[in-house]
Amino acid sequence: MNTNIHDYIVKTEQKEWQPLIEKGIHYEGIFVKSLKFDAEQNRSTTILLKFDPGASYPYHNHPAGEELFIMEGDALIAGAHLEKGDYLYTPPGFKHSVKSENGCLILFVIPEEVEIL
Predict the structure, then answer these.
(1) Checking DSSP bridges between strand 55-62 and strand 115-116, what pairing results, if any?
(2) pTM for the full model?
(3) Helix %, strand %, coil % for the chain, to 5?
(4) 8 A C-beta contact, residue 96 and residue 77
(5) What pLDDT, in 10s, does the model give residues 40-53?
(6) Which of 30, 31, 32, 71 could covalently link to 17 via disulfide, CB atoms 3.0 to 4.6 Å apart?
(7) How far is CA 90 from CA 49, 79, 109, in A?
(8) How do the domains of the chain map onto residue ranges?
(9) Residue 85 in 3-state DSSP?
(10) CA 106 to chain centroid
């Protein structure tokens, strides 16, 4: 195991926001910064997501569940209005969409890739 703490730190202010593009689909108004990349899965499992005002992510399934924390702004998820400081855990197989009328910044932990429905 690598014991150099500096190899595990992500300076988020030094990373550029990237447009969210999954399987060739560009989700307008949603941007991402990878915090933890899983080499075995070849994907990020912990990310920051930024939604511009009015942006939305379609109805989808979380095969392994998810955890999210609203850092700024607000979002509507499965009919629930989440605001700054709110935390949500969804169990495996939970399905929902996400919309942000005012924009938001969300910390996401996603053990497995989502499935768009």
Answers:
(1) antiparallel
(2) 0.93
(3) 5, 60, 35
(4) yes
(5) 999 999 999 999 99
(6) 31
(7) 17, 14, 11
(8) 18-76+97-104
(9) coil
(10) 6
